């Protein structure tokens, strides 16, 4: 497309199990969708860009792609559809009973668009306008507990037409399966020994250092460089048993509580139970306080 601007991108942390959802290629539609594996369901995130003053057919093509995703959803799956839909002449009103926004005033040519959205059971949840008082970025979802807030921009200068938004998906407990600790480790069984030999052979080993420390540093640097160039790495990840919002202190007192409980089960002494009870009270207080801070933030 010969024009400036536009484009869609979704960045996913490489510790999350995710994949791109494939669609038929359409040159005049800028749309992307990713699938993220959660604990008990899939989370689909789709992003659209529709240029200003686009023909209604472009909107309907986007909706057809969104419909393909929705039709593949299982009852427990979640979907979030967001992007620059460029619907500047739409007035939104909050439905206080359900917490989402419905269009109350819009051009007649948008009627088919909103009817399609309603049929897909998607609800709009953004009311933050830009500096011109227009809402160009729409956020649709198929479940509750989604909240949208204005946040500080990550990149400056900020686009005056698109304020930076923070989206709370409300699935902290569900997403704990994605809390992986990712490390890179060398896979020595896949070493390229020919390359390793060539690298080591290319160095002059007549090291001229007046002290042993300088000689050792030079040798280590050569060996590390050779390993870096000839030995591939792979991600070594494991799942954490804790939710992503657990901090080190909370993990520490949880382990202490569990240890005291084991002691009490073995001894069945009142004093051991009192120690366990106090640790449990401290753990529950700290956990609730931390969760409350996260909800307020």
Automatic annotation (TrEMBL):
Top-level lineage group: Eukaryota
InterPro entries documented for this protein: Endo/exonu/phosph_ase_sf
Gene3D superfamilies per UniProt: Endonuclease/exonuclease/phosphatase
Protein name according to UniProt: Uncharacterized protein LOC119643853
Species annotation: Glossina fuscipes
Gene behind this protein: LOC119643853
